[in-house]
User: Fold these one by one.
Assistant:
Number 1:
Amino acid sequence: MKANPYLLYLKCSDCGREFSARKVHTFCPDCQAALITYYDLPTARRQLDRDALRARPRGMWRWRELLPVEDPANEVTLGEGDTPTLRMPRLGAALGLSQLFLKDESANPTGSFKARGLGAAVSRARELGIEKVIIPTAGNAGGAMAAYAARAGIRAHIFMPKDTPQANIQESRMAGAEVVLIDGLISDAAGMAGVKAREEGWFDLSTFKEPYRLEGKKVMGYEIAEFFNYQLPDVIVYPTGGGTGLVGIWKAIAELAELGWLETNKRPRMVAVQAEGCAPVPRAFQAGREFCDFWTNAHTLASGLRVPKSFADRLILNTLRESGGTALAVSDEAIFAAQSEIAKQEGLFVAPEGAATYAALKELMRQKWVTPTETILLLNTGSGLKYLDALQ
Ligand SMILES: *Cc1c(COP(=O)(O)O)cnc(C)c1O
Ligand SMILES: [Zn+2]
């Protein structure tokens, strides 16, 4: 089997202990903290050429030297990645912004950016010989896992709240996954999935409880840098649930800096957006805390944001502080108004989570936290078509 010469080791995000990248690992047993993948970037810097990667066939795997799968034969792909970054001229004009962009992740397989993380994690799981996987999900992660597991020939088990959007339940079952609907939130689903994983020996693909979903999602950061010709935007606004995308984009930027591929020292201010009915990150950020408190009675129709406490809350808060960013919450009312405005002004039927970024941007403009000539990038993380039951 081929090996990726740049893949070094995993490291606990808390105590710094190293783990072999060539064995199956979940998270650090001592700290209950996420493991982060490291690569030999000084060597990669001498050997890899960013423009050669740009010229490869489209998709997430054209960054394969910076991803954890060793033998390209193990890459399980459905065509994820290389999503469009679009100018938002009318929405920008409405807010008085001259450089407003949106990266549209709805073009991914299964209609959300969860395809990136689960594509990477399922690929690596298959490479390491894992045959059964389990996930607790607020929705899109389950659908993506089911699709990639089907393609990989791996058995998929999914625990989701019973009020998860119908599209997620049906797409998961359609792909042959076993779906268990539970009375409760994703945190309850996570508890049950954890027990099941231990009892049955199924591999748990929960956010940050295995190292490689982060690696798939970080590729958004590479694509963003490349789109802006390696001069990053001033602000990136990200709808935050478990935080994989936010932390992943920030990891990608650090890696690109180490590769010497960035044209300037400017780093984007990272903004985490949540819903008023479930806002543990803004609350902890504003209080200057290192961790989030568990958010009780979490509710929002933006199901991807209904995460009462992320396993990687500290990494999310660190990213916001290191980048000079911020966190804020918007109401479901503002989210649905933004969703309709984006569709009417720009023709995009975005997920409520994606719409939340525009609602938040309005608030940031009001606060003068962003200035009119700054380059702003919103992330639309999924397709509005997956939430028809939320729109009555
Ligand atoms: C899961 C999800 C999110 C939150 O993503 P994280 O990277 O876990 O923070 C946002 N939007 C959509 C559509 C999602 O499915
Ligand atoms: Zn540790």
Note: Residues 85-112+212-391 form a domain with the Rossmann fold fold (CATH 3.40.50.1100).
Number 2:
Amino acid sequence: MTDLLKDMQLPDNKGYFGKYGGSFVPPELQTILNEIEDSYLKIKEDESFIEELASLNKHFTGRPSPVFYAKRLSEKIGGADIFLKREDLNHTGAHKINHCLGEALLAKKMGKKKLIAETGAGQHGVALATAATLVGLECDIYMGEVDIKKEHPNVIRMKILGATVIPVDRGTKTLKDAVDAAFEAYLGDPITQFYAIGSVVGPHPFPMMVRDFQKIVGIEAEKQFKEMTGKDPDNIVACVGGGSNAMGLFTAFLNKENVKIYGVEPGGISFKDGEHAATLKLGSPGTLHGFHSYLLQDDDGEPLPVYSVASGLDYPGVGPQHSLLKDLERVNYVTADDKEAIDAFFELSRTDGIIPAIESAHAVAFAMKLALEEGKGKTILINLSGRGDKDIDFVIEKYGKNYGL
Ligand SMILES: *Cc1c(COP(=O)(O)O)cnc(C)c1O
């Protein structure tokens, strides 16, 4: 564990988590990334920045989000007690506002005019559009056309908030293609624009910066859970797309040997290429979008198509720190498939009155199985990364019949 403690200080000053991470970008962009890193390292020690962000977290987002004991779900399963860290209650409905506020404030202090980003489920786009208008910046959001259709309410929200939604019609018209398009736009003008990445991915310093802005989730949860139970949770669970809500929860627990940690990737329909997005389970190290990490790739190193019922999870890469945590065997990376996630979506809605995001439902689905395995007397803390309001039309249309609707 002492080595692991050292690993938690990562990344090193080149942005590496072990052999993962780094920065693989054209030289002109590297200059800009160096500026962002320098500004971030200065600003994160700056009292006025720390106070401003803390104040927004409290008065705007509504932090701290509560920890809730899901009594009826726990009793129904009849195993370990399940607790939820309620990131779904944040303003804008998910954990993403945590890093968007941080990135928006940083961009503003650096004198940038416009925030740009990609979005999958639309949650990052909504959170960023919100943060942009709050601090007074313009905002362009790149989104795959498939996701635009699926996540209609979030598209409308972004427009109401004053952002420009730019449809991406290349490739599979989903998250990876949106990242490609946003990257290109950023390369076109990295001086007045600030690329606010939506997860712990991309070139250094983004995986570090986004993790730092998200780690408030675990810091709060550790304290809240102890107040409720007198102990640490036996298990913590989070879904993993790029991996930001997971790093947010995990970081506070990485050096606690008594806490088992699970990251849940989307198993999709099957483990055939193109029918899942289980990057850590089935991928291999490679380079995409400017960083080195596990990647679902073909023999030529080209990213494979990915799929999940959760738009926010279908990304062929994963944050570099997760790749290291997998190799160190500190975190167990597991999967939940579409069907298990939709079952969990209805289960939690109908036991405890909380409609989870389909992304978060993957974590709930795995935790339900784990609760049985672990048995009574044990505890599981889930990061409930977001609320399911955005998903209800899609779920009813596609799955309603199976659930009597
Ligand atoms: C975007 C999103 C995710 C996936 O992103 P991570 O970076 O892996 O956390 C998970 N849950 C919700 C609700 C999201 O909006």
Note: The pocket of pyridoxal-5'-phosphate is lined by residues 94, 96, 121, 123-124, 199, 239-246, 312-313, 357, 359-360, 385-386 (CB under 6 Å).
